[in-house]
Specification:
The structure holds 2 protein chains of 2 kinds.
Chain A (H helix, E strand, L loop, with lengths): L1 H4 L13 H31 L8 H31 L7 E8 L2 E7 L5 E5 L1 E5 L4 E7 L4 E4 L7 E3 L5 E5 L5 E7 L11 E7 L4 H13 L1
Parallel strand pairs in A: 1-5, 4-10
Antiparallel strand pairs in A: 1-2, 2-3, 5-8, 6-7, 6-9, 9-10
Helix pairs in contact in A: 2-3
Chain B lengths: L1 H7 L16 H12 L4 H7 L3 H30 L9 H36 L7 H23 L24 H29 L12 H33 L12 H34 L7 H14 L15 H13 L1 H17 L6 H24 L1 H7 L3 H31 L7 H25 L16 H31 L32 H6 L2 H9 L13 E6 L6 E7 L5 H17 L6 H22 L5 E5 L2 E4 L8 H29 L14 H26 L8 H25 L7 H33 L7 H29 L1
Antiparallel strand pairs in B: 1-2, 3-4
Helix pairs in contact in B: 4-5, 4-6, 4-17, 5-6, 5-7, 5-9, 6-7, 6-20, 7-8, 7-20, 7-22, 8-9, 8-10, 8-22, 9-12, 9-15, 10-12, 13-15, 13-16, 15-16, 15-17, 16-17, 20-21, 22-25, 22-26, 23-24, 23-26, 24-25, 25-26
The chains are: A alpha+beta, B mainly alpha.
Organism (chain B): Rhodobaculum claviforme
Family (chain B): Belongs to the heme-copper respiratory oxidase family.
Catalytic activity (chain B): 4 Fe(II)-[cytochrome c] + O2 + 8 H(+)(in) = 4 Fe(III)-[cytochrome c] + 2 H2O + 4 H(+)(out)
Chain lengths: 215, 851
């Protein structure tokens, strides 16, 4: 519990609040346990090496442990990684598609207003909770990176390209995001916020937003 | 112990070279010292070309840069210790972390491993110097001057500030005005001349200068590791050099390679950078692993377990490391399935690493490990590197990478790999070879304390940093006012960072004390089995008074060998002809081939690198019209450089190497060291060209902003000129081939050399007409900029070949041709220039047809 308590925080990838971040966190804990076991194994073998000389079979070390053992471990890991990775991809239609447009040094977000137009906001992205949302990430100048650690992994904002990232928040709430790719003097302050609204409120939220931005 | 080593190190039984009669060791030593010593006084500092001097100088300079990079790291840690670090402003902070990374990579790690290879390889392989001593010196001066340019920029407050991987468009003229980015592009490229120089001569030295009887399959593992390193440097550095040249041309002349609005693509930079950047990690790791494979078995009083498996692992690493650069770019939006390939390759690269780790542990089981100081550092390596390797495996898993990429987790990982995989083994190597270098024994105690302080400091700094990253802290931020949850972690890292710095300072103090106050060391204090200990300590400039032969290689008993060699019982004893001589052997089975005469002390490398430096400074100052003047000086000095070689050739004389074994001096064609070096350099050059063609293909296929508006250049006149270019290069190639084939004919070849000159001249004329008359404005679109670069590449090579033809012509006039390798060299380069020229023409015609 103490361990997990240390894993919180508004930007913690270990405190997931969405399916993508959740699956990745599970992957992380599994890999951490595996890495711990492997480290202990190597250290144990090393410690056992400090003894009398003994006959060793070369093939057992280089081929057995070096080749086959590592191939077995890595293949399992690759399979797990690909499986999780495929599940995170934007497949099928997202309920909502929003835009994140990065510039030095801030974020402008675009939302559908439900009438074919867009509602633009600075610094805060609104999404419905409990539904997959696709974010189209673009840049006006240099390379930035869109990252909301509690919801999903990051994707770069690259001039000339539009990248798509799927995010989803399990429950309504506010989630911190930041620019992860170094982008010059204002990089450290290039933060933003994602507010996930209860799905039932979503049309009303858009309505209010539309009125606010129109003013 | 000796028995097992000897049994596995059996030399070539079919090669029996009788011993020379013993002589007085002191007389031999004096005779050789007269020929091989550096000049006296300050002159000796600028004219030295000796590998021992330069290897040590490389390592000492690298340590100075390590200290500077370390101070910058301390500034970073001081800034991050608290949330609102008010210690540095953001501009300065950005310069400091950029310089920290750049210095550690380009001015510490790479030169350090070059220095280690340059210092050790001739000694391990049983020869007297590197293949190209003047090139060693040239490399050193380019390294020093390039490094000083970067330091001067830091001192002046105009250091690079876009991160050590210099992503465009942040580093482009629009977003990075001022000379900061130019300093990086020009300065680092200047330094890379030394990397290419070292790679060429390390390759040639390992393949052609091993002691007779030391087959490729039996050479010390360190040589295998360095051969792999050198091969990777030859193929790894050219993409970075190309990328730097392209970006500098974009910044200076507005040719749009990376500008999306005009058909460029910032991702081209990332691809080219990481095609270098990932192999770079293994370029740094392999020499360190070579040191471990040398030290570990000797400290376990046994031989290495799984020599063949380790060699296979090295080759696999060299190969695989070029297939996984994209794992630095998992978040740029490449389709997941394509990423899976690179993820698999990134995981696969862990296999050869595991093979080595388990071979080393098996070696410890097989022997009786002694817990001496180098062993402590090797244990530190195991702990740290295994953890770093495992986090690397985690980062190769795509979903996890999407979370951890660009966070402190990656910072932690890369320091585990680089400090674990390079610094710890280098500290082990320093402890191991210091007696060899200084001839003095260590003062007990201090080194052990330093080890524990470094180990605790390192893990205290970087272990928690994994968690900092997972809690969301990105790289390269200077303040984090809204995230108190990162503060304790950062403070911990900062405190232990200073502990580590204290440990490294203690280590440096230990080195200084050993060098100045240590007691005399015995000849082979570690009872190591390798030839680097078969000499008096500290090593004389010529290493061996007579060179080891099959018998000494087979014995693997340096103590006995040292006496026999010092008394002149080995091959090619002394320096009776008053010149620097060594044996050249065949690449695979190390049979004696000929005797090479090496150039002596000269300031030419210093002057040449100073004129390259003048070019760099003129470019930095924006004096683009003046910069070519410096290149004229470079060409003139290169001419003098080769004249120096031509006058060394001693006219086909035979030299007594051993009783009943006389060898020719400098063979006429094909097999000289220079020829081998030329081939190695062209491998690098060809890689650069291939990277350029990759760039053309990448922008055509992937970049937004294509196809461009139709080009005015695609006219009948353009096609005619392209054909003229191809014909000119073809004629020059024919002339070069005839000249080489009929070399001994001497004067009658003048006509062919003139034809070669004319062919290259015609090619240059065609290019000049294309550029001035037909080609579109290169600033308009990336297509035109790429065509401009292709034209420049072909033109540069035609110019080089024209100079080589002129050089041959000059030699014919002097009556020198029959004994020198210049026609072979010209033919080699002309073949390359003609082939790349034809490919370039085909690419331009092909892409025009597609469009």
């Amino acid at each position: 519990m103490l361990l997990l308590a240390g894993c919180g925080g508004p930007l913690s990838s270990l405190d997931p609040a969405g399916p993508a971040a959740g699956a990745t966190a599970v992957l992380w804990w599994a890999m951490l346990i595996g890495a711990g076991v492997l480290t202990l194994m190597v250290l144990g073998l090393l410690a056992a090496g400090f003894g009398r000389p003994r006959p060793v079979r070369e093939g057992r070390w280089t081929v057995g442990l070096g080749l086959w053992f590592s191939i077995a471990v890595l293949s399992a890991l690759l399979a797990a990684g690909v499986w999780v990775g495929e599940r995170l991809l934007p497949r099928g239609d997202a309920v909502v598609t929003v835009e994140a447009h990065a510039r030095q040094w801030g974020w402008r977000f675009g939302h559908p207003d439900g009438r074919g137009g867009r509602i633009e906001t600075d610094g805060t992205l609104h999404i419905p909770a409990g539904q997959p949302v696709d974010v189209i990430v673009t840049s006006a100048d240099v390379i930035h990176s869109f990252w909301v650690p509690r919801l999903a992994g990051k994707i770069d904002a690259i001039p000339g390209r539009a990248n798509r990232l799927r995010i989803e928040a399990d429950t309504p709430g506010s989630f911190d995001g930041l620019c992860a790719e170094f982008c010059g003097l204002g990089h450290a302050g290039m933060r933003f916020r994602v507010i996930a609204h209860p799905p039932d409120d979503w049309p009303a939220v858009l309505e209010t937003l539309g009125e606010e931005t129109a003013e | 112990m000796t028995d097992t080593v000897a049994a596995e190190g059996v030399g070539d039984a079919t090669l029996d070279i009788p011993a020379n009669p013993p002589r007085r060791a002191l007389g031999l030593h004096r005779e050789l010292s007269r020929v091989w010593s550096n000049d006296r006084g300050w002159r000796g500092q600028v004219t030295a070309v000796n590998h021992t001097t330069l290897g040590l100088r490389f390592m000492a300079t690298a340590l100075v840069f390590f200290a500077i990079g370390g101070v910058l790291a301390m500034l970073i840690r001081a800034q991050l210790a608290t949330r609102q670090g008010a210690f540095l402003d953001t501009e300065l902070y950005n310069q400091i972390f950029t310089m920290h990374g750049s210095i550690m990579m380009f001015l510490f790690a790479i030169p350090m491993l070059e220095g280690l290879g340059i210092y050790l390889l001739p000694k391990l392989l049983g020869t007297r110097d590197m293949a190209f001593p003047r090139l060693t010196a040239l490399g050193y001066w380019c390294y020093l001057f390039g490094g000083l340019i970067l330091l001067a920029a830091l001192a002046a407050g105009v250091a690079p500030r876009d991160g050590w991987f210099m992503y465009t468009p942040l580093s482009s003229a629009e977003f990075s005005p001022g000379i900061n980015a130019d300093v990086w592009l020009l300065g680092v490229t200047f330094v890379e001349i030394s990397a290419l120089a070292a790679a060429v001569e390390i390759t040639v030295t390992i393949l052609r200068q091993r002691a007779p009887g030391m087959r490729l399959t039996q050479m010390p593992l360190f040589a295998w590791y360095m051969l792999g390193t050198a091969a990777m440097m030859l193929v790894g550095f050219p993409p970075l050099i190309l990328a730097s040249v392209l970006l500098e041309v974009e910044r200076a002349f507005d040719w749009p390679f990376f500008d999306v609005a005009r058909g460029g693509d910032p991702l081209l930079w990332q691809h080219l950078f990481w095609m270098f950047g990932h192999p770079e990690v293994y370029i740094i790791f392999l020499p360190a692993a070579g040191a471990i494979s040398t030290i570990l078995p000797a400290l376990c009083r046994t031989s290495i377990l799984g020599y063949g498996g380790i060699v296979a692992a090295i080759l696999a690493l060299v190969f695989l490391s070029f297939g996984l650069w994209v794992h630095h770019m998992f978040a740029i939006g490449i389709p997941h399935l394509a990423l899976t390939f690179f993820s698999a390759a990134s995981l696969a690269v862990a296999v050869p690493t595991a093979v080595q780790v388990f071979a080393w542990i098996g070696t410890m089981w097989k022997g009786r490990p002694e817990l001496a100081l180098p062993m402590l550092y090797i244990l530190g390596f195991f702990l740290t590197f295994v953890m770093g390797g495992l986090t690397g495996v985690m980062l190769a898993v795509i979903p996890f990478n999407w979370q951890a990429h660009d966070t402190a987790f990656v910072t932690a990982h890369l320091h585990y790999v680089l400090i674990g995989g390079f610094v710890f083994p280098m500290l082990a190597a320093a402890a191991w070879w210091m007696p060899q270098i200084t001839g003095r024994a260590r003062i007990r105690g201090l080194g052990e304390v330093a080890f524990w302080v470094i180990l605790i400091g390192f893990h205290g700094t970087f272990f928690v940093m994994h968690l900092t990253g997972l809690l969301g802290m990105p790289r390269r931020i200077d303040v984090y006012p809204d995230n108190p949850e990162w503060e304790v972690l950062n403070l911990t890292s900062s405190v232990f960072g200073f502990v580590m710095a204290i440990g490294l300072a203690l280590f440096a103090l230990d080195l200084v004390l050993q060098a100045t106050m240590g007691q005399r060391a015995g000849r082979n204090p570690w009872r190591a089995p390798t030839l680097d200990w078969a000499m008096s300590l500290p090593a004389p400039t010529f290493n061996f008074a007579s060179l080891p032969g099959p018998r000494q290689v087979a014995e693997a008993a340096p103590d006995r060998t040292a006496l026999a060699l010092a008394r002149g019982e080995g091959l090619l004893p002394g320096a009776p002809r008053g010149q620097r001589e060594l044996l050249v052997t065949t690449a695979a089975d190390a049979r004696p081939d000929h005797v090479a005469v090496l150039p002596g002390n000269t300031a030419l490398p210093l002057v040449l690198s100073a004129s390259i430096g003048a070019f760099v400074l003129l470019m930095l100052a924006g004096l683009y019209a003046l910069a070519p003047v410096a290149l004229v000086a470079v060409a003139a000095l290169a001419w003098r450089w080769h004249r120096g070689l031509a006058t060394l050739a001693a006219g086909g004389a035979m030299v007594a190497v051993a009783p009943r074994l006389a060898l020719p001096v400098q063979p006429g064609r094909g097999r000289s060291l220079t020829h081998s070096g030329g081939v190695a350099l062209l491998v690098a050059d060809g890689t650069l060209f291939a990277a350029l063609i990759f760039g053309v293909a990448f922008l055509h296929v992937v970049a937004p902003g294509w196809p461009p508006p139709p080009a005015a250049a695609e006219t009948a006149t353009g096609a005619v000129l392209l054909v003229a270019l191809a014909v000119g290069l073809g004629v020059a190639a024919l002339a070069a081939h005839v000249t080489e084939a009929r070399q001994p004919a001497g004067r009658s070849l003048a006509g062919w050399a003139v034809l070669g000159l004319a062919g290259n001249g015609a090619a240059l004329l065609a290019l000049a007409l294309l550029a001035g008359w037909v080609m579109d404005d290169p600033t308009a679109h990336a297509r035109d900029a790429l065509r401009g670069v292709l034209a420049g590449y072909v033109g540069l090579h035609a110019l080089i070949c024209a100079l080589m033809a002129a050089f041959v012509l000059d030699q014919i006039r002097r009556g020198e041709v029959p004994t020198s390798g210049a026609p072979s060299g010209w033919r080699l380069w002309q073949d390359f220039a003609t082939a790349t020229g034809l490919v370039a023409v085909a690419v331009v015609l092909g892409t025009a047809a597609v469009a």
